[in-house]
Write a structure and sequence with these properties.
Layout lengths: L1 E8 L4 H9 L8 E7 L4 E7 L2 H5 L10 E7 L6 E5 L2 E11 L2 H10 L9 H9 L5 H11 L2 E9 L2 E6 L8 E5 L2 E5 L11 E5 L4 E6 L2 E7 L7 E2 H7 L5 E2 L2 E2 H15 L6 E4 L4 H12 L7 E3 L12 H11 E3 L1 H4 L4 E5 L6 H13 L5 E5 L21 H4 L2 H8 L3 E4 L2 H8 L6 E2 L1 H4 L5
Parallel strand pairs: 14-23, 17-20, 20-21, 21-22
Antiparallel strand pairs: 1-4, 1-10, 2-3, 2-4, 5-6, 6-7, 7-8, 8-12, 9-10, 9-11, 12-13, 15-16, 18-19
Helix pairs in contact: 3-4, 7-8, 7-14
This protein binds iron/sulfur cluster.
Length: about 425
């Protein structure tokens, strides 16, 4: 998972670039990077660590009127290349399924690689174009998978979204400036408002405050990632016209309608479970209350790089509120159950030691059965508890009194989209791309 931020303006954009990239921290916490252009060449700086921690005292020299930024779970970006079109830097989010095959072919043609990352293959394919639009088109024809990318050049910033629109990409506008980014939560505090989403297959360019569509690669169908609304994206974002917070409330309300239960309070697994729990509460008329508080200084467990770090972060981030749990029957809402170990070994243990009576779990998405091939960090099939066990067996495994998941049909309805227009592969184990 990654976050991408690109900004172009007539004035210096460095502060906005820094903050916009910071507001995408939830999409990746291992590496971050910024690249800018000010008429005297492209500058680039990357760090291991968080945006605010590593860049706050390291911005001098990056001033410019165009820039791109990246937060990542797996590699350092932006990447810089010098090509026949001139110097450029590129940031990418997604996954290239046929990367091995493409890099072997590029090696046979004389290319060398520093890393085994997707971004190097993407950049080298783009550099073979007659111009940047041609290069993106050629890259799109060769790769199998998902991409959203931005390219900083001396002549402007190019942006592109794959024709299935797996990964989100939105355009924001304010007087004299334009941004293209993974999520709208990154620009609201900078004074931008949503202009529109980047269209499936669209290649566009921004320069100054101007936006120009260069090309649209046609597609037979779309595959908007459902998991963005369920879990990945920030609740303040609007993705492809649908507020993430409203989507989560719709999913929670669907759970309340299909799986009602007689309990005293509705609780959430914070943070992403909160919207689902509020939706469940509003629909069922059972009061929402804080069964758990997420400690403000803890990280996001799902996007930690190793399993040990994920387990550690999951354990420390949630603090139970015994006063709200003791002697109560609780329905607790979560976005998903991955391995089931956090629910079993942490949350259920904490609720039981806080004196809970009954625990009923409601999950916003269907049972996770397969890994993502399109750029979201997920577990292997063998690690997914729902791949190995029925719902009843998962209930027994996590040791709760009740467990129910949203159906695929309810997910489609909650997101307001036909099921053949959204990606649901991690729940069906069927891949269309
Ligand atoms: S497989 Fe799941 S996480 Fe991956 S793009 Fe599809 S819905 Fe999103």
């Amino acid at each position: 998972m990654c976050g991408i931020f690109a900004i172009s303006a007539k004035e210096n954009i460095l502060d906005d670039l820094f903050l916009g990239t910071f507001y995408l921290q939830h999409r990746g916490q291992l590496y971050c990077g910024l690249s800018t252009y000010a008429g005297d060449g492209i500058k680039i700086r990357t760090h291991r660590g968080l945006v605010r921690e590593t860049f706050t005292n390291d911005l001098v020299g990056l001033e410019g009127n165009m820039g791109i930024g990246h937060t990542s779970l797996k590699d350092r970006q932006p990447l810089k290349l010098d090509s026949k079109m001139g110097e450029f830097t590129v940031c990418f989010e997604g996954n290239i399924i046929n990367r091995g095959e493409l890099s072997d072919e590029l090696k046979k043609n004389g290319h060398s690689f520093y890393t085994d990352s997707d971004i190097e293959v993407v950049a080298k394919l783009i550099a073979q174009g007659d111009d940047f639009v041609d290069g993106i088109e050629k890259m799109a024809q060769r790769i199998r998978g998902a991409y959203a990318l931005v390219i900083l050049t001396g002549g402007g910033i190019y942006a592109a979204r794959d024709k299935y629109a797996f990964r989100p990409m939105v355009i924001g506008k304010r007087d004299g400036a334009v941004v293209i980014t993974s999520e709208s939560c990154s620009f609201v505090n900078l004074g931008f408002t949503i202009l529109r989403d980047v269209k499936p297959g669209e290649i566009l360019m921004i320069e100054g405050a101007e936006i120009e569509t260069k090309k649209i690669i046609p597609a037979e169908f779309t595959q908007y990632c459902s998991f963005e609304w369920v879990y990945t994206a920030n609740a303040a974002s609007t993705i492809d016209g649908l507020s993430v917070d409203i989507a989560r409330r719709n999913l929670g309300a669907a759970l309340a309608r299909r799986y009602p239960v007689n309990v005293d309070i509705v609780g959430a697994v914070p943070n992403s479970g909160i919207g689902h729990a509020i939706g469940y509460s509003q629909e069922s008329k059972i009061p929402f209350d804080n069964a758990f508080i997420k400690y403000d200084y803890a990280g996001r467990s799902y996007t930690q790089p190793t399993q040990a770090e994920r387990d550690r972060e999951a354990k420390i981030k949630l603090i139970p509120v015994p006063a709200k749990i003791k002697d109560r029957n609780i329905v607790i809402c979560d976005d998903s159950i991955v391995r089931g170990t956090q629910m079993k070994n942490d949350l259920v243990v904490k609720m039981r030691s806080s004196g809970v009576k009954e625990i009923h779990v409601r999950v916003a998405c269907p049972p996770l059965k397969a890994p993502c091939l399109y750029g979201v960090a997920t577990r292997s099939k063998e690690e997914l508890v729902a791949h190995q066990k029925s719902v009843e067996k998962v209930r027994k495994y996590i040791d709760v009194d009740g467990l129910a998941y949203n159906t695929l049909e309810d997910v489609g309805e909650a997101l307001g989209r036909p099921l053949d227009q959204i990606c649901v592969s991690c729940w069906t184990d069927k891949y269309r791309v």
